[in-house]
Amino acid sequence: MAFYPDISHWKPVSNWAQVKQNCPFIISKATQGTNFIDSYLDTFIKNCEAFGIPYWLYTFLNKGNELAQAQYMVRVCSKKVGKYFVGYILDVEQNNPASGVQSALNYLNGLGKKAMVYTMYAQYNTYKSVIANRGKAAWWEARYGANNGTYSSKYPCHAGADLHQFTSKGTCPGIGSGVDLNRIAGSKKVAWFTGGTAPATPTPAPAPAPAPAASGNTYTVVKGDTLSGIASKYGTTYQALAALNGIADPNKIYPGQVLKISGSAPAPKPASKPAASSGTYTVVKGDTLSGIAAKYGTTYQKLAQINGIADPNKIYPGQVIKLTGSAPASKPAAKPAAKPSAQYYTVKKGDTLSGIAKTYGTTYQNLAKINGIANPNKIYPGQKIRVK
């Protein structure tokens, strides 16, 4: 049995000899945006070349300026790849404009290497024109269905897709469990994905097949997931998932959390409100300010105001929250003794864009704009942020 995994630094290879024996080719993340290189890239390329494993590299496209992001991936990777490199991939998950994706794909098609474009099942109509005009590139589509580690014909990809990502809970020799696995779905043979010759003209994708009725499935969150990304893969909305799972803050989910994909929203439980005189609440792990506010019949904005909380998304276990009262007297903001002279800041674990902005005397909106960050709540350790 052959395995077709895609990985990144979150799920590295543990035994390259086993991967060589079981995986005809392998895919890994290379870049994101125009200033992030996956920390596993050099190790991945080195071992693929050493073990003679054909490999593909992808860029996770932030929303906007997709062509520049594709060009950045090629600049970074072209200096590193070797004999067993097959081609480049565009990972399209951030509601990118179809025109931007098309420009980036046209660029990759002109390089003389093979190319693929990755889209999600629920976004077929958004990228239908890109899929139909993908030229010699392959189309890779994600649709998980039951997401139990195996492929089920109840949840096929759209007809015309060349590669189908069917689970994030697969098990692969040499990598382990919790792996994204794929199957070859179209007319292209394994040899095409390992470096053979591609058919001259791809088959245009037909109209999408109707999605099967949901059957009460669940999904376990893994590191790097967003509620909107999960929703797109399952053909729903993040608002519906939030309501179904009683999630007060859609930006706050965590690895290991089990989400219901379909069913009925939980019946609201009457919150036991303490008397106003009790005055305070001590934060526990998993709390959000909006969730605390809902329990005590107030708003997260009010709690943030009376507790002097600059970033409502950043509270911590053990923190004592005042539930009633007045906002603390405003103090002149203490500016850093000396702002770093560097033009960039490297994100550390626990950082938020609003916290970085405050340190450098700017706003998170400005930092998001000058760094091309589509989701200000999603930054990661090691990312370089331009601060001025």
Mind explaining what this structure looks like?
This protein is α/β, with parallel strands linked by helices and 388 residues long. The protein folds into 4 domains: 4-193, TIM Barrel (Alpha-Beta Barrel); 218-260, Membrane-bound Lytic Murein Transglycosylase D, Chain A, CATH 3.10.350; 276-322, Membrane-bound Lytic Murein Transglycosylase D, Chain A (Roll), CATH 3.10.350; 344-386, Membrane-bound Lytic Murein Transglycosylase D, Chain A (Roll). The chain is built from 12 helices and 15 strands. The chain has helices spanning 16-22, 41-51, 66-78, 98-109, 128-132, 190-193, 227-233, 238-245, 289-295, 300-307, 353-359, 364-371, and strands at 4-7, 26-32, 36-37, 55-60, 85-91, 114-120, 138-142, 163-172, 176-184, 218-220, 258-260, 280-282, 320-322, 344-346, 384-386. An 8-stranded mixed beta barrel has the order 1-2-4-5-6-7-8-9. A two-stranded antiparallel sheet has the order 10-11. The protein has a two-stranded antiparallel ribbon with strand order 12-13. Strand 4, helix 3 (66-78) and strand 5 (85-91) form a beta-alpha-beta unit. The protein starts with a strand and ends with a strand. 33% of the residues are buried. Mean pLDDT is 83; it is low at 197-216, 268-277 and 333-342.
